[in-house]
Amino acid sequence: MTDTLSILRFGSFQAARQLHAAPKDRAEARLHGHGFQVALSAPEQSSELGHDWSASLDRLDHQALHTLMDDASDRGILNFLTEGFGSQRHEMALSSMPARGMRRNLDGEVTAWRAYRFESAHQLPHVPPGHKCGRLHGHGFQAVIHIPVSENSTGWNTDYQKLDLAWAPIHAQLHQHYLNDIPGLTNPTSEWLSVWIWEQLKAVLPELSWVTVFETASCGAHYDGEMHRIWKDFTIDSATEEAGMTLGHTWTVRLHLKGPLHPTFGWAMDFADVKREFDPLFRCLDHQPLTQVKGLLSPDSTGLAHWIRLHAHLVLPALGRVDLLDGCGGGATLDWGAGGIQVLAP
Fold this sequence. Notes:
By secondary structure, the chain is of the alpha+beta class. The protein has 6 helices and 13 strands.
C-alpha cells in the first residue's frame, strides 16, 4: 500500500438551533444550543486548511443555525461545512455532543456514531503466567457504534435514536457484569469484545459498519466484520522550532496495528508489548528538542509521523498507521497499511 499523508485540523464553535423536522414533543424541536467539535482531514497538498477552515467555523460561531441553513441537524451542518470546500477532497467529522457525531468520508458517504460507556469486570484466562490481565480486574469500557446515514434521513438526527434502541439490551448484558460469564466472552479481550458487540448488533442493525471498543482512554480495538485493528496512544512532551521561535507541544501519538488474532491469547498484539517495543523510540522523542533528533526531517507532526513510520516498523511489523496531534488544533495521519476511520478529536 502506498503511503498516504493527511493533514488534520480541529476546531469548535458554539451555536443554537431548532430542528423544524423533529416532532413537536421532541426536545430537538425546541430552541437549544451545543458546543460543536469539528475535525478536518485532507491530503497534504490541499489548500483549504488555512484561512478557509477558520472562516468556515467563524461564520457558524454564536449563530442560530436554523436561520442559516434549511436543515440544522448534524448531517445538515456537516453538508453546509462541506459545501464550503467545493470539489477539494477531504474528510470531515462533526460532534454535537461528546458521545455522538457524524462523519463524511472522501467518497461523500456519511456515517453516524454513538459512544456508550459500561463498567465491567473481566480477566483473561489464557495470558502467560504472571500477566496482570490474568488477575480479576475491571474497566470503564466505552463502545462506539457506527452506521451509515441514509439519504432519506428526516433531518432531526433519528440515527442516534436508532442506535440507542439497538444498544439498550446489549448495555443490560454488559454493564456491571462479569464478562467471562457471558456466552461468547470466555476470553474477553478488547478484540473479542468488539466482535461480540458486532455480532449482537448486526442482527438488529444490518447496516452496521464499525465497532470500536475503548478498554482504557489510551488503547482499544476496532472491528468491521472482517479486519481486526488495535491502537495504543502515547504522549510526548517535546520542544520544537517554529517561525524562529522555540516552542513546545504535548503531542499525542496513536499507533494503529492490524492483523489476525492470536489463536490462544485472543489479541492482535498485547498492548503491553506495543508499549515495550515502542519505548526506545518514545525515549528518543520525549522531553527532547526535536531539532536534534537524528533523521527527523521536520520538527512537526508530519516529520514525526514519517520518522516513526521509518523506525517503528522494524519492531512493530503489524504497524500500519500513525496519527500525530499537536495539542494546538493540528496534526497529521500517515497510513501505509491499517486504513480505518479517521481520528475524530484531539
